[in-house]
Amino acid sequence: MSIAKLAYLTTPDPGRYVINFQTFGSDDLVKIEVSHDQMRNILTDGVTLMLRQSFHRVPVITNTEDAHERAAGA
After folding, report:
1. What is the pTM of this model?
2. What is the largest CA-CA distance in the chain?
3. Which top-level group of life is the source organism from (predicted)?
4. How many angstroms separate the CA atoms of 19 and 30, rounded?
5. Separation between Cα atoms, residue 53 and residue 46, nearest integer Å
6. What is the DSSP string of 15-44?
7. What span, in angstroms and rounded, lies between the C-alpha atoms of 59 and 51?
8. Which residues pair with 30 in a beta bridge?
9. Which residues are 34's β-sheet partners?
10. What is the pLDDT of residue 65?
11. The sheet that has 4-10: what strands, in order across it?
């Protein structure tokens, strides 16, 4: 597996989607055209993955008395 030094998306024409990337150690820019459905899947999965990493889980307090005591500093 290679690591991208540079990666971006372009749309040369309406309805055409191109993934452009350059790997570390290479001067070649690779361009791959993907279909509308493939681009939709890439974006959907990408957003899901990024959002999953950005959320900070907050503990759920099920006992309201404990919650009130914590808020009052008891």
Report:
1. 0.65
2. 63
3. Bacteria
4. 8
5. 11
6. T-EEEEEEETT--PPEEEEE-HHHHHHHHH
7. 18
8. 21
9. 17
10. 63
11. 4-10, 17-23, 30-34
Residue 28 lies in a domain: yes
Band the pLDDT of 31: cuts 50, 70, 90.
very high
How many CB atoms neighbour CB 17 within 10 A?
19
* Statement: residue 70 has pLDDT above 70: no
Q: Could you tell me if 22 and 41 are in contact, meaning their C-beta atoms sit under 8 angstroms apart? A: no
Q: Judge whether 7 and 19 are in contact, CB under 8 Å.
A: yes
Instruction: Say how far apart CA 22 and CA 27 lie, in whole Å.
Output: 7
Is 48 inside any structural domain? yes
Q: Closest Cα partner for 14 from 31, 30, 36, 29?
A: 36
Query: How far is residue 17's CA from residue 34's CA, in Å, rounded to a whole number?
Result: 6
Structure token pair of residue 42: 């890439």
Residue 71 lies in a domain: no
Structural domain that includes position 47: 4-54
Q: Give the number of domains in the chain.
A: 1
